[in-house]
Each structure stands twice: as structure tokens, then as C-alpha cells.
Write the C-alpha cells for this entry.
Amino acid sequence: MAEHALARPGQLAVGPIGRNGLGYWGVAMLIATEAALFGYLLFSYYYNGATQPPGWILEPAPKMFPAVPNTVLLLASSGVVWWGEKGIEAGRRGQALLGFGITFLMGAIFAAVQIYEWLIKPFGFAANSYSSLYFTTTAFHMAHVIAGLIILAALFGWTALDYFSPRRRIVVSAGVLYWHFVDVVWVFVFTTYYLTPYLGFGT
Amino acid sequence: MTRPPLDYLLGSDGVRADATLPLTWFTLAISIIVCVIIAWLLWVGVRRARANGGAAETVGTPLEPEQGRGLSWITIGLAVSAVPLLATLIWTMAALGHVVGPPRRSGMTIDVTGHQWWWEVEYHGANPSDTFATANEIHIPIGTPVVVRLHGGDVIHSFWVPALAGKTDTIPGQQNIAWLQADRPGIYRGQCTEFCGVEHAKMGFEVVAQPANDFEHWREAQLQTAPPPATPQLIHGMQFTTFRCGLCHSIRGTDAASHYGPDLTHLMSRRTIAATTLPNNPGALAGWIQAPQGMKPGTLMPDQHLSGAELNDVLAYVETLK
Amino acid sequence: MRQPAYRTPRIGESTPELRARLHAIWETAPGWRGWLSTVDHKEIGLRYIVTAFILLAVGGVEALVIRLQLAGPDLHLLTPEQYNQFFSTHGMTMIFLYALPILSGFSNYLWPLVLGSRDMAFPRLNAFSYWVYLAASIFLYSGFVIGAGPNDGWFNYVPFAEKDYNPGINEDVYALGMVLLGISTTVGAANFIVTAFKMRAPGMSINRLPILVWGTLTANVANLLVVPAVSLAFFLLWLDRQFGTGFYQPSAGGQPLLWQHLFWIFGHPWVYAIVLPAMGMVSDGLPVFCRRPLVGYSLVALGTVATMILGFGVWVHHMFATGLPALSLSFFSGASIIITFPSAIAVFAWLATIWTGRPVITTAFLFFASMILLFVIGGVSGFMTASVPVDWQLTDTYFVVAHIHYVLIGINVFPVVGATYFWFPKMTGRFLDERLGRWNFWTMFVGFNLGFLPMHLTGLLGMPRRVWTYPEGMGWDTLNLITSIGSFVFAIGVLIFFYNCWKSYRSGAPAGANPWDAPTLEWSIPSPPPPYNFAVIPTLASRHPLWEDRLDESEARSSLDRGMTLDEGKETIITTAMDAEPDRIVEMPEDSYAPLLLTIGLAVLFAGLLVKLWLVAGLGGVGCLAALLLWLWPRQEMRERSPEPRKIGEPAHG
């Protein structure tokens, strides 16, 4: 008689523990598809740029202020939100609230400065395909910043309501992961639109 | 059997099509052989099946336990497939070399622009004054590579003369290069093959391949401006034509100098009108002028609704544009 | 009730008490409430299938009108503009609204059953995916019914789709509708991927997945990565049309070819996405009627993945005539020829399965087996177009139209109809009528080949595609008439199929749990399956749990009647990604209105964008946000507010 293979697990976690859960996978999928989206946006920029004569880039020497400090601010916010997540992991609610709150403020400042950048750009949305791509790409990113801010606000509120514990915190980990993504994508956007003209692309 | 006008399977009449045709047949033959073999294998395999089938018989048929059997099908199958695939790959690369770029020594260069839904053709000579435009009929000398610079006038079209060469798109903002070299004199049908709007179907053209002398005669004739009208009817016809038709068309030597539609300077030398939609004869021309929307619905030329007298005058004048 | 963090799952038999308890936990509420809020993958799968079949019928009627128009030269049944809307809508319907959704439907229904799970990873996302698909279908058809359907073909090249040349609302509907549909496809893809890796019964290791799962998984990895390309392309087009941006306009420094790149980067993998799952159906279904396991399982699975990987690198073969440099032509031509190999693996595997098996002819078998031939015909015509010089003649002629129909009908519709004959008993508990089935098969098979085999010749004789009519004397008259006749015969076959489904659903012969004596997990549970699928979570010991005693592949036997009961809530098991070791117990969400509300919010948003009522669009956006917050609000029972969590090791129910 053949023997039956029966899975007889011992202690199993019930529901998500830490970042170990389906929701985290789900956010990872969201990030994969969004990363692809930004990839295609940047592809559009490089493709159009490579097939156009010089002069296509309407601002061949993009101003570094306030773009550089703003970039630093956004990247730094990734560290702060990480610190906030550590607070949840350690059961220190005050640290988490502080972390999420400060990250929210940093993100909001980034968004405000970026809107200011839009206003001082010497070209409009539909000036040519360069300007359209610049505004569309940065606006797509802005939409993600706003989504991230809503998430941070929700995390802040839920933390204040004491919904999370070191083990039951997948929502926090997933939300924080999303914020990291928003920051990393900006590095690519920034490099493409602010740095490559200095490296000779399209000029 | 005469070859259908747009055929590219039963023959070829130009250098590029000549290089493509055997490859087409080769890949087609491989394809048919593969399909026949697979169909046969399938047929024989299935013929061994139980007569009736159905759920009861599925359940009643014992399983075939031997696991390992059958893998050799895949290895042998892939190995056999590799041969024609490799051959096709090599042949493709070789043929591509023959058809892709124009030869360095080309006889002449012309510009062709795709418009909704007609073709503008521009010839150049040694002097700028040797430039002239025509439409929907491309004359080329035989035995000479003719470089065709392709432009997109509005949307994307595709330039195709199957007897001579494969397709190249005409894309706005980009100049593509095709080239034609006809082996023998003849009239070869061309067609737009990229969907371009309502009358994509009726966007044909013709390539007239001629011996070099005939081509030169044609070219010199095309360089002439329109003859001055000789009779009062023709004068009236010319005035009316330049006034009405000149809104969109040009007739060199008159005031009609607009380029929305085909150049009419030598309209009557052409075999067809409306991008090969109609034969070029007075009856068809009259019908076309009056009611193009009935013959090519959606064409950018509006119905003219001329009075009988006006139409007669216009026709009389246009018939002098030889 | 708060969930304990850890628990040792109880092992038990499938008893009537257990089944009753699970039934009470998993059942969807009766009436319209349950109908609007259900997250049961079987219900959602069936909705997908029914909706996609309805759209197949609609697209089919459009095709018949087209074939009437083309039955002879110079016919005037349709005006050119009407014709252009008909062929564009036909393409849109079949490719976007039928071909993938029907496969998503089958996979949605079947995946948890073949994987040994009680639901998909994200049941609410699943419901959302369906609702958005439905909303997008209605949205996309809203233009056509008022005479403003898409009119630039399904791949919608610019600049013709730009406002200058296409001023109506036609292309706005198409552009926004496709973005909306993309949301459905993307969330569906995410759900399939996570489900494949996490929601399997213990022992369902990666090398035991049915090929259907391999095919759908591969297709959806591709979708996740390439759907953004087409969504972006359509969104940029919409911006061009509404705000005068110049992404595709040469006059504004844009590039018409950017559209083609974005579209085909998506479009070519998409072609594989709409055939690989269907090939999986054949790989899983055919062996049942050949009474043996599939030959070369591992090779077929690898071939599936390899096809898609290569499939990412061949998009340019749709653009050979756009004036690319020779180097680029050679590369993409070579890649397109090479891709034949992994696809060929499946063909030889199927043939070998028939030859070394004991084939039993059923209607499902006929559809699966005939698909092999249709697959090969569609494959070799694709191989011909991979050779650049030949393609420069073939492209944009009816040869390509014949090719795409052999691919879509041959490799999608035939397997899908076969799959319906195969799995209908599982879904309904009744067989489809076999006698009608034979009529069904032969009319479809004869009609299809009568219609589309001569079409290759029509193309080789130079007939361009997308022409609303053609003059006499081109040599295409007879061929077109034959094609039109064939298309009507084929349509009769499809009608017989629908009739058979309707009739058998009401009065078909009853089928038991495993009416075909098939080997896989879905046949180990009753037909139709109960809401909870598996009373006890099975443990797999081989790829063919129901054939183990006879195949005797190994010593071990799967455990189907005894396993984890997981009956303390709406629970199922999560396993590790590769080996499928039990990892965690997961609490599945209850039925929810959130997916429907979010869909309504999205629909309002898109409708607002379409008619440029920004306030309406904004309200829709706010609605979406509210629905999302409702959806994502952390669940009470998953919180852990007490400072001292339950001690590890303590029994769950003390």
C-alpha cells in the first residue's frame, strides 16, 4: 500500500505577520506595473528626443535649484518613513506617529516645490513634445506623491487609533514600501529630465 | 491566366520583387509541407481512436501508463524543424541585402508624397526649373534603379508596387527611402496599404515603366506648361477652371496654383483619375467633376454641381491638358 | 472576534458536518445583495465567460456584416465610414473584449480548483477586475451605438487618430475606454500572479502546476509589464486630442512612430497572452482523452515561458515597413524566426500524446486535436511574415488577416470551445450534448477553414486589408465570396454551440464529480463545486492525483479526503512559492460592495473625462478614493491591540 502524503503543519501564522502577507505581494505587483509605466514614459522621452533635431529640449540647461534640494528632501523622507516603520516594529507608537507625520510634511513640501517648479518653467504644457513629456511625466509622479501622501495620512490616523502592533502591521509595511517606490522613481525622472541634457542628450 | 494587378505570387517584374519572389515561394512551400505533414500525423494518430467516444468510453478506456515514451517526438521534431528555419534565416538575410538599400549608383531620384487619398509625385532635373509634379502615375525608365523618397503628407500611408517591390510607409515628419527598378516595360499597379481613412480602399496608383527614350519624351512633355486656350469656349473654360478648380489644384501656366489636390497640368496624359478609381475618359471625368462623392464617398473633393454649359466649357478646356 | 496570531490547523476528514459548516461560512448571500457583492471566484469566472461569449457574438455579427460588404466587388451595403467603424469595432471586440477576458474567465473559475485552494489571492480585486471589464466594455461600445465607434482599426495608428484627421468623439471613447480596460487587465494580472505563487495546496510544487496555470501565469506576468505601455499610449493620444500636446505630432516635435512602438511593445506580448492560456487548456485537456499524461510536461512548461520571454523582443516585426535601419530589421527578423522553436515544442508534445496514447473521440477532443492543425497553419503563416523581404509583400494584405484569424480563432476560440465541452460538466453538473457537439464541431471547423484558408491566397494575390470595397478585375471576387460563405457556416457552428450550452444547462445529462476520469484536482470535488471548493485542503504527491493508483509514478499518494479543515473562519492555506510547503493560514475577505463602488467611481471619472465635465470627473475621483479607503480599512479581527499577544504554542481553541 502506497503511503499518503499528508501535509500536517505545526504552528502556522493566521493572517499576515510582519510584512509577510498577501497584501505585501499585492503592493509589489502594483509597484512592478507602475515601474513599467514610468519606464514607458521615459522611453517616450528618449525615443522622441533621439529622433528630433537639437533644440527639441526647450530648457537645455535645467536649473538645479530648487530641483536638487527638493530631490534630496524626497530621498531623505524615505529614511524618515523607514524610521517610522521601525517604530511600529518596536511597538513605539510615538516614534511611528512622528515618522509618518514628518514624512507627510516632507512629501507635502516636495509637492509644493514641484508645483512651484512647474509655474516657473519657461514653457507651457503643449509647447512641443518635450514640454508635454516633461509635464506629463512629472505630473504622473505628482499623482503618485499625492497617493503616497494619502497613504501616509491614513497610516498616521490608523496608528493614532492604535490599529497596529509589531506583528499585525502589513498595511504599514506595504504603505511604506509604496513611498520608497515614489522616491526611487523620482531619481529616474530627475536624472532623465534634469541631468541627461548636461550629459549631451538632445543638445 | 493573366496575373491579377496586385499579385506578387505568380510573377515579378522588378529587381527587388525578383529577389523576394523565390524566398516567398520557398517559405510558402515549407509552410505547406509542414501543414501537410502535421495534418497527416494528426489524421493517422486520431484514426487509431475508438469509434464512438464520449464520456462513457473515456472513463472505460484504461490509461496508458508508459511515461517516458513520446519525448523523442519533441527532440526529433525540433531537430527537423531547425533545418528549414535555419535555411530561411540565412536566405532572409541574403535577400535582405539585395532589397534593403538602393544601389549606390541610382539613375534618378523622385519624391512621392502620400495624401488622403492620392499620391503626389515630383520629378527633378539638373536645374530647379526642371522640376514638375504629377499625380497617381509614376513613370520610370526601365533597367535603372529609381530612388523614391517617401513623405507623409498628412497621415501614414504605405507605398506598394507588388510587381516591383515590397512596401514602405510614408510617415509624416520622416523621409523613408524606397527604390524601384523595372526589368521590362509595363504598367504596374500600386496601392496604399496602411489604413489612412475613409477612402483608403481607393488610393491606388500606377507605375509606368518605359524604355529610356520614351521616358525622356514623357518627361519633356510633362515639363511643358499648359497650352494657352485658342477658342472663346476654351478661354471661358480656362477662366472657370482656374477660378473653381484652382482653389485646390494647380495648372502650370495659369493662375491655378494650389496644391491641396493633384496637379492637373497634364491631366489628360494620365490613364486614370481619382487615384485609379476611374478610367480617364470624358464621360468619367464629367461624372467625377460633378459628383465625386458618389464615386469615392468621403474624398476631399466636393461635388461641383456645375451647369451643363459650365461643365462643357470645363471639359473642353481640361481636354487640352495633354 | 480577534484572530490569534498562530494556530495549529486541525486535520480531519470531509464529513457532512464540516461541509455544512464551511457552506455556511463561504456561501454568498442570496438575492441581489449577494449578486452585487460576491467575491466567489467561480461566480466571477462564470460572469467573465458569459460576458465574453456575448461580446464574441456581437463581434461575430459585425464580422458577418463586413463579410456581406466584401462578398463581391463594388458593393455598397455600408458606407466607407460605417465599414471602418465596423472593422475597427470588430477588432477591438474580439481582441480586447473577448480573447483575453474569456481566458481570464476560465482561469478565474478553474485556478483555485486545480490548485487546491478555496479562492484566489485577492477575491475583492477579482470582483473589481470583472466589474471594470464590464464597465469598460459598455464604455467602449457607447461610441459605436451612436455611430461614433473607433474608426482607425484596433491598433489605431496616429496621426490618423489625432484630432486633425479624426475630429469626432470616436477616438476619445476608444482611448479612454482602453485605459479603463487596462485597469481591469492589470489588477487581474496581479491577482493571477500572486495566486499562482501563494495559493496552492501543499505539495502542489512548481513542477506540478497544470499547463493551464503556466500559460495563464506567463500571460499575466506579461500583461502586468506591458499593459502600461498601451494605457500610456492611449492616454497620451487623449492628451494630444484634448490639450493639443504633441507626443505624436511631427509639427510639435513628436513622433508618429512612438505610438507604434508603445502599441506593439504591448501588442505582441498580448498576442501570446491570448493564446498561451488556451494552449494550456489543450495541454491539460487533450491528455485526458488520450488516456495518458502529457508528453514532455517540463519542456512544454519551459516552452511556454520561453515563448513569452522571446515574445518581448519581437514587437518590431509589426513595423518592418516603417523605414527602420537594416541592422534592426535583421535582429527582429531573426528573433521572430527563432521564436518558432518554443512554440513547436507544444505541437510535438500534443502529437506525441495522441500517438502514444489511446485517443477517445469526444467533442472536446475534436476541438483540442483540430486546434493543433490550426495552430500550425497560424504558426507557419507567422513564420513567413518573420522574413523581412517576404513580409514587405505580405504585410497589410489579407494574408495577415488570414494569419491573425488562424491565431485568434484557431488558438483561442477552438480551445475555448473545447474547454467548454470539457469543463462544462464541472461548472454545471451537466454534460453538453455530444451529438449537437459533433454538429457544432464540424460546422465550425469546415466553416472556418472554408472562410480563412482561401484568404491566404486573397492576400497573396494582393488584396490590401481594411479596404471597404474593391473593384472588379483584381482577381479577388471568387475568393472573397468563398470566404463570406465560410464565415456564415462558421457562424452557424457558433450558434449551435450557444444553443447547446443553453439546452444542456437546462436539461443536459447529469455528470458526476469526475465524468471524464480526469487526473487533476478540480475533478476530485463535486460538480458544480461547493462555495468553499475543498472541504479539506488536499495534499499533492504528484501531478495526477486522481490517476496515481494506475500510473504508479511514485510510492506516495496524494491525500484528498483528509487534510486541514480550516473551518474557523473564511480560511484557506498559503504555501511557499516553489515547493508549496504550508506557510500561513489566511483569512479571506467577506463579500463586499467596495469593488462595485470603486468601479462606479471609475466609470463616473472616465465618463466625466470623456465629455469634459471636469467636476463630474472630480466627483468620480473622490468616489474612487472613498471606495478605496473603505476597501483597505484594516480589518477588526486582524488587529492586535492587547499589549500581550497570545503566547506562541498555545492551542487556538483552548
